[in-house]
Sequence to fold (440 residues):
Amino acid sequence: MNPSAGIFDLKYMYYEDLNGVWNYTPALRLKGSPAKDFTLQWDQEIDAVSGASRRLGMRQIGSLGDHDLLLDGMSGASKREIRHSESVRVEYGKDERKAGGSITFSDEADYTSYGAAFSASMDFNRRNTTLSSELGWLEDDFHPLGAFRGLGGKKKIRSLSLGIFQILTRYSLAGVTLDYIRNDGYLGHPYLPVILANGALILENVPAIRNSVAATASWIQGYHFAQKLGSIHLHYGLYADDWEMRSQSAEMQWYQYLIHDFGLRLRMRHYLQTSAGFARESYLGNELYRVSDIRYYEFRYLSFGAKVFGSISNALPAWLPDRWEIAYDRGFRNTRGEMETGNPTRHYQLFSASDFYRDGTFMAGLGFDW
Amino acid sequence: MRNKTRWIGILLSLTFVKCANVKPLDREILSDPIMQIRPDDQGQKIEEQNRPRREGTVGGRSGAGGGCGC
Fold:
C-alpha cells in the first residue's frame, strides 16, 4: 500500500446488547499535511444512543418525551441522546522527534466534556526504539434532566501516559505503556438508584476521587505465508485503582493478507475485573458508598471478532474509495439477567435470569487517500 | 540486591542493543498497516469510547475514559 499525503476515513458502528441498549456512531477522520513536517487531524463523531434512564415506572424521564417503557440500565446516559464529539490534533515531526497537541469537545443533552492533550515522542538507536509520552486533561459536566435535574456535577480527569516501543527484528516489535489517571469530582450518576434490602430506592454514591494505574504490553510478530504477509498481535493489560478494582485483559489479533491487499483479521479478547471495594449485593442504606451498576461488580467478558478489509483498484474512478472494511464482534459476559426471579432487579440486567449477557458490534469503513 | 539489579539492567540494555539492528531500508514489512501497534486507530478510538459503557475500569489503551455520559 502506497503512503498517501492525506486520508479521509468514514466509519460506521452499530452496537446493541441484551438489555436493549443500542448505539449508532457514524464517524469521520480527515488527516493531512498542511505544511512541511506538520500533520493536522480532525475527528468527528455523532452518537445516537438509547441511554439508560431508570423509568421508575414513570414515563418521560429526561428531556425527550416518548413512550419507551423498557427499563434500561447499562449506561448512565439520559435516554435517546444524540451526542456529538469533535477532536482536532496537530503534530510536528522532524527526524527523530515528534510533538503534538489536541483539543476535544463532546456534548449531549445531559453531559458536556472538553479537554486537551499534549504528546511527545523521540526515536533513537537508529529509530529502532521509540519513547513516547502524553499528558491529558478533561473537564466534564454532568447535568441530568427531567426527574434527576439538580443532581450530577463536574468531573476533572488528568492522565499521564508513557510508552516505549522497540523494533526487535524485520518482522517483530514490542512495547509497553504505563498510564496514570486521576478522576476528581462527581464520578457516578443518578440513573441507577440503589435498591435497599427493604425495597426502598436510594441514590448511588461513589467516592469523589479515583486514582488508576494501568500497564499494557504489546508484541507484534509478522511472518510470510505463501508469500503473503500476516501478523499476530498480542496485548496484555493490567489495571488497578484505589476503589479496589483490578482488571486484566488479554487480546490476540491475527491479520493475514489473502489476495493482493484483501485480508482477514480475527481477534479474541478476554477481560476480567474485580468488584469495587464498596460494591455489595445488598445495602441497608447507612453505607457511605453504594452502587447498583453492574460495571462495579466482578465479571468476565469474552469477545470474538472478524474483519475483512481491502483496497480498491486505482484503475477505478478517483472519486471511489481506496479502502474498505467490514467487521463484527460478539461479546459474552458471565452475568445473568434478573427478570423472572421474583426479586427487584439489583444491577439493572433487564433480561431473563436464565440468560447470560451478550452484545454485538458491527463496524464498516471506507477510506479515501490523496 | 544492588548487584542483581545492576545485572538485570545490563542484560536489558544488551537486549535492546542486540535488537536494535534493523536498518531503515529493511523496515518495509514493519511499515505495513497490519504491523502497526494500532492498525485501525480510528476504529479502536470508537470502540474504546464504547468500552466504558460495559466495563468498570478505565485507562490503559483506552485513555482517560472520560468525555461521555456512558
